[in-house]
Input
Amino acid sequence: MSILIKNGRVVDPANSIDAVLDVLIENGKIAGVSGDIKVQTETLIDAAGKIVAPGIVDMHVHLREPGREDKETVATGTAAAAKGGVTTLLAMPNTAPAMDSAENIELLKEIIRKTSKVNVLVCGTITRGRLGKELSDIPGLKKNGACAISDDGCSVDDRGLMLEAFKAAKKAGILTVCHCEDKGVSGKGVINLGFNSTRLGLRGIPNESEYKRVARDIELAEKAGTCVHIAHVSCRQSVEIISAAKKKGIKVTCETAPHYFSLTDDALLGYDTNMKINPPLRSPDDLAAIKQGLMDGTIDVIASDHAPHTENEKDIEFERAEFGKIGLESGLSIGIMELVDKKILSWPEFIEKTALNPAKILGISKGTLGVGADADVIVVDAKKEFILDKKKIVSKSKNSPFIGKRLRGLVEYTICKGRQVYKA
Amino acid sequence: MAWNKKDLLGLEYLSAEEIGLILETAESFKEVSTREIKKVPALRGKTAVNLFYEPSTRTRVSFEVAAKRLSADVINISTETSSVRKGETLIDTGKNIQALKADIIIIRHSCSGAANMLAGALDISVVNAGDGWHEHPTQALLDIFTLKEKLGGVKGLNVAIVGDIAHSRVARSNIWGLTKLGANVTVCAPRMLLPSQIERTGVRTSSDLDEVLRNADAVNVLRMQFERDEETAFPQQLDYYKKFGITEERLAKAKKGIVVMHPGPINRGIEMSSGVADGGNSVILDQVTNGIAVRMAVLFLVAQAREVKA
Output
């Protein structure tokens, strides 16, 4: 199968390209990127006025399968990914059963082989059952194809055990992704601690519950001599701690999510449970720090933290509703609107944070349009406006904070390993 | 001005004029309870449903009396014996009540935002009778009504609210209502019982009760809820009483003529001495009486707003 994408603005930071060019795809690989390619192909895409970029590599996705197929499945989640321009994703391990053993990973890989529409990488757990009590068989997870380990949703409270985890990860040559939250501090909190938690009469979650754990995990990773990736950074102090660590040469990378640079806790004032997220939407000052961190390079990656939940789990009293929101289908638009259009990031910088950097951190040869690379390519109409319609959401769950909002930037084509997996 | 809201969810959401309208309407209803036949036909043929997810006697009874004096039919749903026990969601319960063609739901719930959620899901009126730590608007309205009655007005008054501000819906509703009407509000509590950034509502904070009482025209004393407080390790009751209890000795040093309020039920000897509760400065039972007029006004206005819309 061959595809020729003509006259798009090709943004490929891996090869320092930002120019109007043609992209030729043959046999699942990038066969050429240059001006005026004249080859007869099965498919011809006119991308004049559009962005052509490597597909998004989303490091933080909850596919919920196995165990909670009522929320999402590999099939529906990867269909949503394809629609959102995501060609590779890292599936978080808080499934039932959790991805804490070679057998469980094998089970998931079988589902992926049968039903996935895009590349799915598997994340194993740090501890068995994500209980924070004993380490998973980390070398075994790695051997069976886990691409990273994380207890996402939980932090390993036991300092000594976390140090052991970093040492084991170093030995196995696997990345550790840390969900940084001290539940002793966040407690029963449901939104950011501040004036809005006071107004709403809801228990608050202070920034401290996140940044103190960020500092601890960086310290332990350094002690173990390995790298650490901090998930879903939401507050100013975390950005500052990570920035200082990077300046000291510590091997730390981090991600934030589109909601942390587009929404503040003002969005909670109507008790909308789709705005109930962990870590919570923070203050305008935190949002400014996240944008600054993206701009100055402290924040390496933008990931969705796609967290589907059913209506039954969201259409209830705020305090009882689940944390999390979906994001695969809206992340690119939010990034374009809040970062590229507002000149926080250039297009190449934006593609770096959504495709190239996550690929590098995960150690996979993605996020590039280099000749010979897997042909994971998106064509984006960055100016196209649309209203996010709940009925058109592909994800099995509809818990998006952006329903009914006017968004800008629409994926027109998603090509994964040379195959068109989505067309607007 | 005309009232056009189908719901009463909190005083944060009202303008000073809207609060004023409720208070004026309450004044005209107060007289009804002094008649030999304590009834007017204002809500005849309407059905009000008391949907209480938390135990409450005084608020529920006050709403029931208010609705009945307006000639509405009143149904009390106790969640202990209803299908809520069988796991029905709040919205489903609300929709069922709406399908029974009730006109007003009066809801009390332990979760903040429960009334907002229900109001958003239903076409019929929702009146918040207290949701979590969020708001208890009719309590604050009756407190303000009583203050006006006793002191002639609210603007420029120094009002102290003493007690567990952090976990109090009564405090929040009073703060919104009083500040909107131009009172100077001081909240007085141990630091740990003040919620985050409460100053941004326009109140002053203090932990020196004697200093606060010297300048206060009125003090609203909150109920200390030691029984359900898991997370605020405060304070030994005795300790609290020493520092924040309203006693006769304290009142002797307070501003002359200070009005003492309490939303009830009182913990005698915990936040207030018996002498103060029953003494000459206390208007606690007037508050209970005024609660009826204020709730009559609220039920009347929300029902009317719905009729105008329909």
Remarks:
- Chain B has a mean pLDDT of 93.
- Chain B has two domains: 11-135+291-309, 137-287.
- Residues 1 and 21 of chain B are 8 Å apart (CA to CA).
